[in-house]
Amino acid sequence: MKPFVAMFALLTIGAAAQETAQPGISTVSAPAMGKTVKGAPYWADEITESLQVLADGTRISHQSKATVYRDSLGRVRRESPDKITIFDTVTGYSYTLDPKSMTVERLTMGTLLMNRQKLFFFRKSAAPSPEATAKAKAELDANVAELKANLAQLGEALPKLAKRNNPLTESLGQQVIEGLTADGTRATETIETGEVGNDRPIHIAYETWISPDLQTVLMTKHTDPRTGEETFRLVNVHVGEPAANLFVVPADYKER
Predict the structure, then answer these.
(1) Phi and psi dihedrals of 116, rounded to 5?
(2) Which helix (H) or strand (E) holds 6?
(3) Domain range for 144
(4) DSSP 8-state assignment for residue 243
């Protein structure tokens, strides 16, 4: 991934984590979750699937499954085959449990933020040697030069990114999914001819269905002729309070 694309992706993910309803939890380098929802408890299975059909008819498909729980306090537990994550919005900590080793990692829970004040972080310590100071200055100069180059690339790319990230949005009305009323929207993005070496326009569609009652995503569908179709859906949805012990780290787990 090119540097400016990586920077733009981080900014986009950070905004999404803060402002939109999430299908479960978004994790970016350190636990970060979206909007805390209180008073709408449920538990369900999350199914994520992808399907790509090659030119010769070969089908490549993948599926993953996880179980998500959310209580009335807004705490979230997410279980996959090899990991359990608890986001405790009451204490402000996240816990990542490894069932095989019976260990847990505790981290301060937060929202991903990027600003110019935090691009560089300095920690005071004992006075460094002249050699260490020179080395640190050289590394800092190199980082600043790289940052300026990345910002220049980002400046060139922003007009295209802004155009492409302003898709046509339409309402799909309502439908019942897993016994819940869901509001649907579709965003269509077009990559114009020649923008990425394409000899005709490429149309990409994003479909999202959100439950107003649970304030969470019930289903999404992303269709891109370059990569195929990706879907996310909640199944076996139970509206009600999950067991309280699901949001507590077992006493026999050791902190790592």
Answers:
(1) -65, -25
(2) helix 3-19
(3) 3-110+135-255
(4) P
C-alpha of 48 from chain center: 13
Query: pLDDT 10s per residue in the chain (256 long)?
Result: 443 333 333 333 333 333 333 333 333 334 456 678 999 999 999 999 999 999 899 999 999 999 999 999 999 999 998 899 999 989 889 999 999 999 999 988 764 444 444 444 444 445 567 777 777 778 788 878 888 777 777 766 666 555 555 678 999 999 999 999 999 999 999 988 998 899 999 999 999 999 999 999 999 999 999 999 999 999 999 999 999 999 999 999 999 8
Q: How many Cβ atoms from other residues are within 10 Å of residue 236's Cβ?
A: 10
CATH number at residue 144: 2.50.20.10
Tell me, what amino acid is at 223? T
What is the token pair recorded at 58? 């070969």
Q: Identify whether 186 is part of a domain.
A: yes
Cβ count near 74 (within 10 Å): 18
Decide: 202 and 225 in contact? Cβ < 8 Å. Answer: yes
Q: What's the pTM?
A: 0.67
State how far the alpha carbon of 4 is from the alpha carbons of 9, 23, 53, 118, in Å.
9, 27, 30, 18
Q: Cβ of 208: how many Cβ atoms within 10 Å?
A: 21
Instruction: Give ∠ CA 113-34-62 in degrees, rounded to 5.
Output: 105
Residue 123 is assigned to a structural domain of this protein = no
